[in-house]
Amino acid sequence: MSERLELQPAEVRLFALGGLGEIGLNMMVLESGSELLLIDCGLMFPEAYMLGIDLVLPDIAPIRGRIKDIRALVLTHGHEDHIGAIPYLLPQLGFPPIHGTGLTLGLLRNKLEEHGLLNRAKLHQVRVPEEVALGAFSVEFFRVTHSIVDGAGLAIRTPAGLIVHTGDFKLDNTPVDGSRTDLARLAGYGDEGVLLLLSDSTNVERPGMTLSERVVGDAFAEILPQCRQLVLVSTFSSNIHRVQQAVDAALACGRKVLLHGRSMVANCAVARQLGYLRIPDAALIDLRDLRDLPRREVMVITTGSQAEPLSALMRIAMADHKQLELEPGDTVILSSKFIPGNEKAISNLINHLYRRGAEVFYETTSEIHVSGHASQEELKLMLALTRPRYFVPIHGEYRHLMRHAQLARAMGVPPDYVRVLDNGQPLVVGPNGLRLEPRVESGRVLVDGKGVGDVGAMELRDRRHLANHGLVMAILAVNQKSGEILYGPEVFTRGFIPEENSGAYLEEMRQVIRQVLHEHSLEAIAEWEELRVEVRKALRRFFNRTIQRRPLIVPVILEL
Question: By the 8 A CB rule, do 15 and 426 touch?
Fold first, then answer.
C-alpha cells in the first residue's frame, strides 16, 4: 500500500483482506484520503489440506505500514468469522478503537481477556441505530436479523457518497426477540442515494425466502413432549436465539437445563448478563446435579454439532465422556447446519449416537435448523430498497459472488456497475465511476498451537507428503576431520513400511546408502548438504524402482 495511487478528494478505495471467494475470514478495508476504516476481523477454520492447523487468520501485510492511519475497527456481529482474529491481530493493528453492539463486544471481551489484551483494548458500545463519526467516515449502525443476537449492518458516509454494508443478514418477519431487519431505514438510504452496496452472498443459490428462526422453536416444541429420557441439544454457542428456544421448550416440559462445553457456558453467561438470554437460575443445573435427577427431567445443551474431535458431544458419542453417558431411549438434536467439508465427520458422529441407542434429529430429517442468511428473494428486496448505483457482492465463495452479481444485473443494476472482486483487489469508487487498481498482497496466516504465521506453504507441503507417503530417515555419524564413518548408515521409517516384517528391504536401503558413500570421498566433501542430496536421490530412485512409493526422505548426517 505504500506505492498506492493518490485518491481524489471525492473518491474512496476498498479492498478485502478476506471473505471474498471463501466462507469466513471476513475483513474489509475502506480508505478515504489518508484514513483507513476496518470492517470486521474474522478467522476461518482450517481446510482439509491444512494438516495440524488450528485457525486461519487474514494477512494484514497491506496495511501493516499504515497503522497510524486506522481510525477504527467496526464490527457487524459476534460470529467467529467476523471477530475471531481480533485477539491475534489487535497488537499488530496498533489497538485501534473498536465499535460494536453489546453482545458483539461482550463475546469479544472474553476473547481479549483470555489473551491478556483487555486492558489495552478500546471498546466502544453502540446502540442501534446510532451514528459514529470516525475521521473521514461517519458510520451508522442499523439493525439486521441473523443467527446471532445484536447483528448490525453499516451505512458508511464518505466524501464519495453513501456505502451500505449489509453484514450477514436475513429478513425474518417473526424473529425470536422481535428485532427485525430495519427495512424502513434501508428504504431511507435508497431515498438518500446509495453509491455502493456491499451485500451478503452466502445463500444466493437458494430460491425463495429463508425460514424464520421460530420454525426451530416449533420443532423443539413438537419433539420434546415425545421424549421419555435425557434430551441433548447441540448447537453453536453463539446462537443465543437457538439456545433460548431450546430452553423454553425444556421448561415447558418440566425439564432442568445443563449448559455444557466451555464456549457454551461462557457465551451464555455473557448473554444472560446483558439480558439477551433468559434462563431462571432455578432451572439451571451442573454436572454434579445430573446423577440426582431422573433423566426424563433434564436437557443438556452443548457444542460439538460439527463433530469436532475433542468436543463434548463427540466424546459422549464415543462413550468417552467421564460424566455424561447416553442410554437407550435418549434423544439427541443436532440443531445446526452441516458445514461443507464436515459432512463425513458428522455422519460418523450420528452413526455413533445411534450405536449408543439414542434417537437423533438433524437437518435432513426435521426442521431443527434454519439458516441465518438471506435467500434470493430477500437479496432482491435488499437491492430494491437501497437502489445502489454500484454493487459488489461479499461474503461467499466465488460462485456465490458470481450468482449474486447476476441477480443484481437482473434487478436493473447496469452490468458495468457490478464488480466481483477477489481478496486483495482494490476498487476505487468516485464521481468518475469505478476503477480497478493493481492487486495488493493478500493471503492467509496459519495458527498452529501458540505459533502464529510460523507455518507456511512449505511446511504444509511436507505435512501432506508425510500424511500421504510416510517418512524415511537415514542416519549417519561421520568423523568431522577424517571422514571416517562412526555410526550407520541406519534407517528408520514411519508410515512407510512395517519395520518389524521388512528387515531385508531395510538392509537393501542401507546398501544403497553405502554405495553412495563408496562413490564419494568423505574427506573431500566441503558441504555435507551435497551428500544429503545424493543420499536422497539414490533412495528416491530405489523406492521408485522397487515399491513405487514416494516417502519424505530425511538424511541426517552427524558430524562428530
Answer: yes
